[in-house]
Amino acid sequence: MITKRIIPCLDVRNGRVVKGVNFQGISDVNSPVELGRYYSDNGADELVFYDITASYEERALFTDILREVASTIFIPLTVGGGINTIDDFDRVLKCGADKVSVNSGAIRNPDLIYEAAQKYGDQCVVLSVDVKRVDGEFRVFAKGGREDTGMEAIEWIRRGEQNGAGEIVVNSIDTDGVKQGFDIELLKLVNAAVKVPVIASGGAGNMQHFVDLFEAIPDIDAGLAASIFHFGEVAIPDLKAELKRNGIHVRTV
């Protein structure tokens, strides 16, 4: 049985962790260094660090903050935001990232996934996809959920896997920050379409939502959340205990 991963996400803007609803209404939360250390010490399986405005502002990711986060945690670190070239992969990996997440950069240059996988290995390349329902279709959005690409999401994700992405993060814009549960409909379609690990993101509001996710899609790999962890609404050790009570296999804290 696959051990399910619980992954906090640090959405970083101007060196601070922030959080919004449906990718809007951004508010300040905490220092990424302090939060990263806290999660590393309190049972998180991995940590995701997104520089959420790097692509929109067309600049490089903040490497000074990233180095500090990487140096204080002892769990795998995935980093994304402003990843547009192989040089960006190289720079982020040298700052201490274990995996690199690419989103808008892959939309602009689909060959980036293939090139990165060839150079660094599939296990290092994460395709992050921001998805929203538009006229009854799941569409891929770029630039932090601001821009509708017109691309159908499931086909784009399949293509990413074929190009060498070793993991898929599915961010549902429709459920992001709403705390009404993960987007099960979307996640079932993605999980059925690929063979690589899938991480669910967007919508977790309580522990039961994680139980619902892993029961509805038994072979999905991980659940990712931000605000419920950041604001202390759910403690990761308590969540893992609840998952174990429901027969869901997790790494013990």
Strand content: 25-35%
The name of the CATH superfamily reads Aldolase class I
Structural category: alpha/beta
What is the third-level CATH name, the topology? TIM Barrel
**Average pLDDT figure:** 90
CATH architecture: Alpha-Beta Barrel
**Biggest sheet, open or closed, and with what strands and sense?**
8 strands, parallel, barrel
Task: Please explain how this structure is put together.
By secondary structure, this protein is α/β, with parallel strands linked by helices. It has helices spanning 32-41, 63-72, 86-94, 104-108, 111-120, 153-163, 184-193, 207-216, 227-230, 236-245; strands at residues 5-13, 16-21, 24-30, 47-51, 77-80, 99-102, 125-134, 137-142, 147-152, 167-172, 198-201, 222-225. It has one domain (5-245): TIM Barrel (Alpha-Beta Barrel), CATH 3.20.20.70. The protein is built from ten helices and twelve strands. It has an eight-stranded parallel β-barrel, surrounded by six helices. β4, α2 (63-72) and β5 form a beta-alpha-beta unit. α8 (207-216) crosses α10 (236-245).
Brief overview:
With 253 residues, this protein is an alpha/beta fold. Helix content is 35%, strand content 28%.
Please give the structural blueprint:
Blueprint: E1 5-13, E2 16-21, E3 24-30, H1 32-41, E4 47-51, H2 63-72, E5 77-80, H3 86-94, E6 99-102, H4 104-108, H5 111-120, E7 125-134, E8 137-142, E9 147-152, H6 153-163, E10 167-172, H7 184-193, E11 198-201, H8 207-216, E12 222-225, H9 227-230, H10 236-245
Parallel strand pairs: 1-4, 1-12, 4-5, 5-6, 6-7, 7-10, 10-11, 11-12
Antiparallel strand pairs: 1-2, 2-3, 7-8, 8-9
Helix pairs in contact: 1-2, 8-10
